[in-house]
Amino acid sequence: MARALLIEEVEAATAIPRATLRVWEQRYGIPGPSRNEAGRRSYSLDEVEYLKSVASLVRRGARPKQLLAIPRDEVHRRARAADREDAARVRRHPVLSLMKAHDVHGLRAHLRGRLLLLGISGFVDELATTTQDVGSAWQCGGVSIFEEHAFTECVENIVREALSMQPAPPAGAPRVLLATLEGEHHRLGLLFAQAVLVAEGCDCISLGPNVPSREVARAAKAYECRVIALSSSAGANSRKVKSSLGELVKGVQAHAPGTAVWFGANQAPPRLLMGQVRHLPTLQHARLAARELLGKGRRTK
User: Fold this and answer.
1) Domains delineated in the chain
2) Using CA atoms, how far apart are residues 178 and 187, in angstroms rounded to an integer?
3) CB of 86 closer than 8 Å to CB of 57
4) Bridge partners of 261?
5) What sequence ranges are listed for the domain B12-binding (predicted)?
6) Helix, strand, or coil here: 6?
7) What would the pLDDT profile of 247-295 be if each residue is shown by its tens digit?
8) Tens-digit pLDDT profile for residues 80-138
9) How many Å apart are CA 254 and CA 298, to the nearest integer?
10) Torsion sign, CA atoms 132, 136, 137, 143
């Protein structure tokens, strides 16, 4: 007889938090675990396989309430169909297919070819979309964590190589300080923004990710920067972002008055800071802001 799994083992196997499993059990009667001799919930292997199918579809946007109300065979059928569709999409996607083939050298060659074709600014525009595709594939289980990390390292190295080959900014070019605030460890968005600003002719200095607000303000003064450009990922904690941005604005007022603050993120800055922080939701917004800074364009909202 196959061994039943405890709730923590089911959590590890399905990526469904145990608290969620308990809520589903209470609300919908599913899953329906038995109890072992110690009185703990135990789940059969069939139950775990069913929960894997549910989790797979939930990651793709399905609603648990609807899934748990239909026959289990139908849930399995939908999960298998979604897997086939994702596999086909990966095969059609040049980057995802190379990632899944674990062809790192092929991936580098492909990305370098796109860089040569598009130039650094167009290249990072394309990379922004590709990175979203990779993130979506990871959320659906189509890309492993190690594959996503290998992709990120490859992209970072190529963009940094391209930045190192850019000509020096012209004399008197406005200096832009780039950073992510404390608690934000994602660096690709920051790197893409740097590439766009450098391509437009800005003099960029990057502090990298996870920098305390007070240090960003002090650096802006030390480097005599016209602009502080921040990057924030979609998964950033909104409360932490609000606090860090508020601290930064106060620091800029104290240490580097007159320095503009640009905030590159999908989410807008807190309403209270809207007059002091300029929201740039896309790389194109950053490009237009740079042109305005350089006197090449009009103010964009």
Assistant:
1) 5-86 (1.10.1660.10), 93-163 (1.10.1240.10), 169-293 (3.40.50.280)
2) 11
3) no
4) 228, 277
5) 173-301
6) strand
7) 999 999 998 899 999 999 887 777 767 778 999 999 999 999 999 999 8
8) 888 777 776 766 789 999 999 999 999 999 999 999 999 999 999 999 999 988 988 88
9) 29
10) positive
